[in-house]
Amino acid sequence: MPDQYTTPPKPSLLNPNSPLERLSVDLSLDALGSRLDIDGLLAFQRAANYLAAAQIFLQSNVLLEKGFSQDDIKPRLLGHWGTCAGLNLTYAHASALITRHAEDGDDAQFIYVTGPGHGAPAVLAALYIEGSITRFYSQYTLDRIGLEKFVKSFSWPGGFPSHVNAETPGAIHEGGELGYALAVAYGSVMDKPNLVAIAVIGDGESESGPTAGSWHAGAVLPILHLKYISERTIPGTMDDLELLCLFTGYGYQVRFVEYGELPNTEDQAKRKELELNKSMGVSMEWAYGEIRKIQKAARTGNPIVKPRWPIIILRTPKGMTGPRFLGDKQVVGSFRSHQVPLPLAKTDTSQFEDLQRWLASYNFQDLLVRAPTSAHNEGADPEAFFSKEVVRILPKRVERRMGMIKETYAGYEPLDVPDFKDYVNESGKDASPMKTLGEYLVDVVKRNPTTFRIFSPDELGSNKLDAVFSVTNRQFQWDPETANIGGRVVEVLSEHILQGFVQGYTLTGRTALFPSYEAFLGIVTTMVQQYAKFNKVAVETKWRSDVPSLNYIETSTFSLLTLPHHMVRVYLPPDAATTVCVMAHCLRSKNYVNLVIGSKAETSAYLSIEETERHCVAGATIWKRYSTDEGRNPDVALVGIGVETTAEVIAAAALLRKEGVRVRVINVIDLMILGEYGTHPHALSNESFNGLFGTDTPVVINYHGYPANVKSLLFARDHPISRKRFEVLGYIEQGTTTTPWSMLRMNQAGRFDVAERAIALISTAQPNGLIAAKGNELRAWYMHQNHDMRAVHEKYALEHGVDSPDLKSGAVLHEA
């Protein structure tokens, strides 16, 4: 067994005599004096570190009383120890900071966002000590019985998972996919002037692209946690000068809090822990003071154009306070402390004895109230269970403790949404869905000056939503000539960052709209999936209230069908009126991920205003005016899903009716109605499905997207659907930048393609009918027309840059 630690060498480009070498360490404690309460900070961390380790290992005998044995160890050891002590250090200092300023009359509100979501044992431990776990989960009382239940529940069936999620009080970020904590923290404080977010960013997470792009926003205190470890991270190999230059360039003021070399003795370890906490306490006080200074300047009409927000760079050994060695292998300060430091504690006697010594080193029982607590505690008061040294750093107002901040679980603020009817045209009038929606959003912005924002990667103009700039601006502060602190549009050329902003903004109660394009929204697909998982659990967690839906709008194809079906809503409104009606619904909805796929081009209004509202509520209806005999007894059903695809369906219906084909035209606006009944709240019952599509009628579906999306919904239905009677047309990855009709034709989804496939299906279904008799003639004619129109209209498009007016839906309507 070696008798000392080894610390990985820290590279240095600095002159040892440089004043930067100890930047921010030589801070005076005079301003805080005894108010720093070092003893209270250390006691809280001891208790939290013990509880974090106990959650990983113990299923019983949490107080290590007589008879402690390997039977008390969990059969499956899950969790990550390496980051726990650092998280408990920052949580303790944040709590003490809130308490100090509350005593001065400053009603400080903090939320705590952790990038290392796998550090849940630490977060849960701190929440249990402050009483938040007991408040939301009454079975985990603050007494011996509740303590046993709480510790056992970690990574135990029916208990808390091994990572921070929606079941964790105070959490607004799951951390299942690293890289987004900082952006989420920034989004959470937008329009919340009294809220400050502390974001702990792990060194591994800091290597991700999304984090690298997120260092530029607002009232957030980032703590970059660099851990001494033999397998180094990129920032972990940087010396202070490199880190100082990097983050100064990002616009921050930098302070370093460092543990230093690993100690050789227990006394040295205690002294280092003391100095670490002094440095951390002063640095936290400095950081909060800088944030308030910047905010005060802005709120008194003298904003700092380029404010330098604070950042703390924290260096501690990985697995700090844990077992020093495993056999002759170093644990603290090495990769061995990352997850479970003593993985064989249940079966290996030597590791069990190491665990026993480790847990005993915290003297946890000394941190509890000695007298029996059941008579006067009722399991709900931390001060009746933990000693006063442990809990005195906690905010006295329990609603200011970070696990109980209302914004993190009950902050929903409904929008004042205008009536869509005031913004749309009557049937037959042309309008651009996106332009009309932009005009609608003007009033949404005006009515909701602090609860609605648009987040877009520089695409409002190209998506024709730029009418909002008549009442607001882009939010940007760094340019003295264009500085605008109050703008409601946030534009950043990074979908990852915007998605993080949107999640933080939404999960703290406000409503966001995210316009983009297919190719770009795909970048954040996995983030949306993680969000949907978080929100799914949140909806199932009784103490969490609703949150606004997360709303996307785009003008090309995209699919969210891989998300949990009951969480996602996908709408494809066919015209301007239905687009605004759907958006009005989405902005009022809660707990969903809404995707609206629209169009920038002008299109006719197909329905009256009353019909529009009924159509949007139903999700799909028969369009009688474009059908034969209002859709009765059809030879074929033509289904449009999307703007241009619906226009082509109506044009195809007109072609077929001329030939005596009985046509039923259907429009689907809510894609999820097609799925299996019971798998989605909007899915049609079998009776309703048959009422729309018949039981033996051939059906041609023209979809603004990939046909596989519709097929996956249709053919999963629980009653038999003959694949032979359903044909789904859509995008098959043909074509590039071109006009809408040319794109449809190249993807075999134009009007003649729809008509040709309809004749083919009718001929198969009615081989002895009149249509079948001339089926070959009609199919050949439609293919010929398709070829001829291709030449004529491609020439027009090449000369004019747009489709021929003959192809517009308005011309089709008159013909129909």
Automatic annotation (TrEMBL):
Lineage of the organism: Eukaryota, Fungi, Dikarya, Basidiomycota, Agaricomycotina
Cofactor(s) recorded in Swiss-Prot or TrEMBL: thiamine diphosphate
UniProt record, GO biological process: carbohydrate metabolic process
Keyword Ribosomal protein: no
SUPFAM superfamilies membership: Thiamin diphosphate-binding fold (THDP-binding), TK C-terminal domain-like
InterPro entries on file: THDP-binding, Transketo_C/PFOR_II, Xul5P/Fru6P_PKetolase, Xul5P/Fru6P_PKetolase_C, Xul5P/Fru6P_PKetolase_CS, Xul5P/Fru6P_PKetolase_N, Xul5P/Fru6P_PKetolase_ThDP_BS
Xylulose 5-phosphate/Fructose 6-phosphate phosphoketolase N-terminal domain: residues covered: 38-412
Domain of life from the UniProt record: Eukaryota
UniProt GO molecular function: aldehyde-lyase activity
Protein family per UniProt: Belongs to the XFP family.
Domain Xylulose 5-phosphate/Fructose 6-phosphate phosphoketolase C-terminal, first and last residues per copy: 600-808
Keywords, in A-Z order: Lyase, Thiamine pyrophosphate
This protein's name: Phosphoketolase
Pfam families found in the cross-reference section: XFP (PF03894), XFP_C (PF09363), XFP_N (PF09364)
